[in-house]
């Protein structure tokens, strides 16, 4: 699990804790029960898959799995920030390159991931002066390149090992996408219906929905990113 995913899981649990403590929502907004139940079970499944992923990393293949986690963490931060920059400036090719999420990256072969990261590093360096206000620094690009090189040194594994790693990582990533969908498409929309009638409950919910420790992206960038 990446650091970003750990922060998301903490947010899911905070939302569930709030809903469990505020029983009145069952009478004021009973439709919340279904997505709350879904989020609860997805969160449980995430913890199970994380145990599987951790067990995998703690085995003989730990160096490769850890190298992949570290690479994806930094690649997502830089890539998603560049996607916002590209979208706001009409750079469609750059947007297509950098509009990434952890599930799509996890499905790439080692060679495909290495090639994609190399291109993003190159584009980040080319646009560094413009990307500074999007929270990207030369040090972060250097760190990404270092993590890429470390991943390269550990990626010479049989294809069967790669497929096993892809499946385990995809299982975990897809659960986070499901949880995000429940929150964004169901719970968030339902909470908007009580925004005026129950402002305290609504504001408390919005506070719990924030992902803490989301890194160095400034506020103007964060609001353009979707979970």
Q: How would you sum up this structure, described in words?
A:
- The protein is mostly helical.
- It has one domain (3-222).
- The protein is 76% helix and 0% strand.
- The protein contains twelve helices and no strands.
- The longest helix is centred in the C-terminal third of the chain and has 34 residues, at 159-192.
- The protein is globular, with a radius of gyration of 19 Å.
- The two termini are 16 Å apart.
Topology:
Blueprint (H helix, E strand, L loop, with lengths): L2 H19 L3 H4 L4 H25 L4 H27 L3 H7 L3 H5 L3 H17 L1 H4 L6 H17 L4 H34 L6 H10 L10 H4 L5
CA-to-CA gap between the ends?
16 Å
Beta-sheet strand percentage?
under 5%
Q: Please, how many domains?
A: 1
- Helix and strand content put the structural class at mainly alpha
Q: Number of helix segments?
A: 12
Rg (CA only): 19 Å
- The percent range for helix content is over 70%
Q: What about the largest sheet?
A: none
Average pLDDT, all residues: 83
Low-confidence stretches: 214-227
Q: Based on DSSP secondary structure assignment, what is the total number of beta strands?
A: 0
Defining key terms:
single chain; 227 residues; mainly alpha; 76% helix; globular
In summary, what is this structure?
The chain is mainly alpha-helical. The protein contains twelve helices and no strands.
